[in-house]
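Reminder to self: tokens first, then the designed residues, so the page reads top to bottom the way the pipeline ran.
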């Protein structure tokens, strides 16, 4: 059970990065539907950077840059050119697969054995990691997970207890009032899309260099969309995103465990599909949403 809980935190880490990023972007009125492509670009850039440099920190920096670049393209098209956010995101997600496949082949060729790097090490926190159960689960993780222990409470505080958070929420609810106050609505939205790109790049890097130590173009496997779903299932709130992430992380941990058990009556494909089945089920069950009023609607300054 302890190993299952450790795996829950581990599997939930990238989902929480993505869902928190999505909460902030969508609170400002922009759905980052390119999140799957951002995850994938971060995963590839993180692996390529770490493998070529031999430095995991450089890999994380490359993942951040790739996520930032991908989100900048998406933000420019959707925020400034005011194109459809779902269509644009879908196109970028497909493009990301092609880009990663192309550069993976160009740079590394077709190796006979999978290329690997040593994943980010587990860093036990002195004293805290010795606490029974809780210490083993929470304080024997890698640096990307520990960063979330700061990011999650800080993200809630900023969003609901600061003037910056009020501005972000107002941009998604009543951008005209924000504009009248002298704040550039599109600048706020574009900045949050870029921040989502940074977080999504780190989420992708977690899969390639924080957990598996390798890269394949199928490794994200829809998890970006799960992070997207967690955002609205958590009612666009960082605390809701945290709760949703723990649920999905646990389901994925169970899925991995069940696939490792031999002699199962049910096929492995059923357990692989568990997180996605849960996503559909919870979406159907949810009856009401506190949706930002101007979510998905481009803003044009009136003359």
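Designed residues (303 positions):
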């Amino acid at each position: 059970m302890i190993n299952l809980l450790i795996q829950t935190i581990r599997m939930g880490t990238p989902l929480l990065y993505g869902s928190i990023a999505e909460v902030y972007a969508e609170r400002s009125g922009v759905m980052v539907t390119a999140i799957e492509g951002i995850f994938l670009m971060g995963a590839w850039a993180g692996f390529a950077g770490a493998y070529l440099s031999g430095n995991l920190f450089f890999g994380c920096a490359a993942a951040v840059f790739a996520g930032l670049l991908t989100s900048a393209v998406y933000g420019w098209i959707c925020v400034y050119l005011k194109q459809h956010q779902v269509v644009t995101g879908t196109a970028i997600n497909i493009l990301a697969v092609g880009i990663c496949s192309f550069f993976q082949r160009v740079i590394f060729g077709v190796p006979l054995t999978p290329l690997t790097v040593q994943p980010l090490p587990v860093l036990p926190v002195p004293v805290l990691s010795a606490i029974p159960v809780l210490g083993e689960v929470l304080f024997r993780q890698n640096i990307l997970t520990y960063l979330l222990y700061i990011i999650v409470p800080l993200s809630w505080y900023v969003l609901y207890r600061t003037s910056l958070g009020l501005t972000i929420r107002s941009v998604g609810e009543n951008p005209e009032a924000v504009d009248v106050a002298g704040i550039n609505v599109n600048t706020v939205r574009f900045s949050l899309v870029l921040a989502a790109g940074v977080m999504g790049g780190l989420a992708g890097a977690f899969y390639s260099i924080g957990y598996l130590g390798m890269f394949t173009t199928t490794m994200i496997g829809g998890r970006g969309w799960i992070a997207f779903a967690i955002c609205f299932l958590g009612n666009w709130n960082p605390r809701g995103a945290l709760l949703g992430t723990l649920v999905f992380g646990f389901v994925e941990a169970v899925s991995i465990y069940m696939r490792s058990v031999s002699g199962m009556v049910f096929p492995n494909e059923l357990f692989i599909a568990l997180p996605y089945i849960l996503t559909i089920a919870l979406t159907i069950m949810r009856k009401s949403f506190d949706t930002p009023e101007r979510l998905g609607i481009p803003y044009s300054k009136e003359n």
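Strands lie at 123-124, 140-141.
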